[in-house]
Specification:
With 288 residues, this protein is of the alpha+beta class. The protein has helices at residues 8-20, 27-32, 37-46, 66-76, 85-92, 149-156, 162-174, 191-202, 241-256, 266-271, 273-284, and strands at residues 24-26, 49-53, 56-59, 82-83, 110-114, 126-130, 138-141, 144-147, 209-214, 217-223, 228-233, 260-265. Helix 5 packs across helix 6. The relative contact order is 0.07.
Length: 288
């Protein structure tokens, strides 16, 4: 073991470890290179080490990059911990990371550990315990343990809006990142479409196709087996007489092709969801 009074020995080793870990080091690593617990305290007092989390220190200064903050949080949670959720998405580049100059939002750092882990919650990040986290879901990026792109996108689903999740998936595809096993979000394009889809889930209606092309038209929602199409009309849909005429010509053409077309307004979707669902259910089930 190196002599802690030989300044070059520990310092060189500390610098090498910190360089690999984006400027941070653990207490266990310090002890391993020959720095005693009392010497760690001396270095903290002298400003050569800065405590970031219990047992994790920044070397030389506190001005860590995002990668340094992520690595510090992962190290604080033990060997089985990985960066996850929105933090992993930022590391993979599928969501914009915080700039180092922005206010510190360390509470937004997400870490996942196996459910059997005994790690208790700690201040400074959000800790997730998962019964489904397996070795195949984990990898390293820039030296940081992290969920792989597919697992990251799956974890994002409950945290992001459909539009935000779709954007993340598109960015992952653009970057060539694998996303096996992740179902794309419903490709809704407007708030009213999102509200209608939420209504379908809430009322337990069969899942419709979303923004499907029929002939030369793209329809909002379709139950193909029932040959039922639903269009949702916000205020912008009635912006002109020509738009009104075009909708009627469109509906007529779809009727010729054997589809029944229903149109629901914002008020109907938001104020009479049960009535809308009752109508759709009757037609989908063949009672209408």
């Amino acid at each position: 073991m190196p002599d802690e009074h030989d300044k070059s020995g520990p310092d060189v080793a500390i610098a090498a470890i910190a360089a690999r870990q984006h400027g941070v080091i653990t207490r266990a690593e310090l002890v391993l290179v020959g720095v005693s617990k009392s010497a760690i305290s001396d270095r903290v007092y002298a400003g050569r080490l800065h405590r970031i989390h219990r047992g994790v220190y920044a070397v030389g200064h506190r001005n860590l990059s995002n990668e340094g903050k992520w690595m510090a949080a992962v190290l604080a949670c033990g060997e089985s911990a990985v960066l996850s959720h929105t933090s992993a998405a930022e590391l993979w580049g599928i969501r914009r990371p915080r700039r180092p100059s922005e206010p510190d939002k360390s509470a937004a750092i997400h870490i996942t550990v196996p459910i059997a882990s005994g790690r208790r919650r700690r201040r400074g990040f959000t800790l997730h315990r998962s019964s489904t986290l397996i070795a195949g879901h984990c990898t390293r990026r820039n030296g940081i343990p992290v969920t792989n792109p597919g697992r990251t996108l799956a974890d994002l689903r409950p945290l992001l809006s459909p539009a935000q999740l779709a954007a993340a998936i598109r960015e992952a595809e653009f970057l060539g990142l694998p996303r096996a096993g992740v179902r794309p979000p419903d490709p809704v394009r407007s708030e009213l479409e999102q509200l209608f889809l939420a209504l379908c889930r809430r009322q337990r209606l069969p899942r419709p196709g979303v923004n499907v092309r029929i002939d030369r038209y793209e329809v909002d929602f379709i139950w193909a087996d029932a040959r039922l199409i639903v269009e949702v009309d916000g205020w912008e849909s009635h912006r002109s007489r020509s738009a009104f005429e075009e909708d009627r010509a469109r509906d007529a053409r779809l009727s010729v092709l054997g589809y029944r077309v229903l149109r629901f307004t914002w008020r109907q979707v938001t104020d009479d969801g049960a009535g809308v669902a009752k109508t759709i259910r009757a037609l989908v089930q063949g009672d209408g």
